[in-house]
Write a structure and sequence with these properties.
Oligomer: single chain
Number of domains: 1
Number of strands: 4
Length: about 100
């Protein structure tokens, strides 16, 4: 999709920002981990990685993250864990802790 957009529009390849909400927020984390050379920054919105999918490669050490999450979210709980529909998420603190360590914070 990105190659299609770049082929049809004049975009700055050094200014690609990735965001998404809920499943899109999960996809934002996943995309950044799989293609760390692409995003200039990411901003997941109430989306956290599922357990086993938290990956923050060293190549993301210069990519900023701004994570938005409601403390009262029961669909994707901020504290992580299993939801009523059986999905198991990483916690926000664990997720951002990995990002912070990768950024030497």
């Amino acid at each position: 999709m990105l190659e299609e957009i770049q082929g049809n529009y004049n975009i700055d390849k050094d200014a690609i920002f990735v965001t998404g909400a809920s499943n899109g927020g999960m996809m934002t984390h996943y995309f950044a981990a799989k293609h760390p050379e692409i995003p200039r920054a990411i901003a997941p919105i109430y989306g956290l990685p599922m357990v086993g999918f938290l990956d923050v490669p060293k190549a993301l050490s210069t990519v900023p993250i701004m994570q938005f999450h409601d403390r009262g979210d029961s669909t994707i709980p901020v504290g992580g864990g299993m939801t009523m529909d059986g999905f198991i998420y990483e916690s926000l603190s664990a997720t951002l802790g990995i990002w912070a360590r990768n950024h030497s914070c």
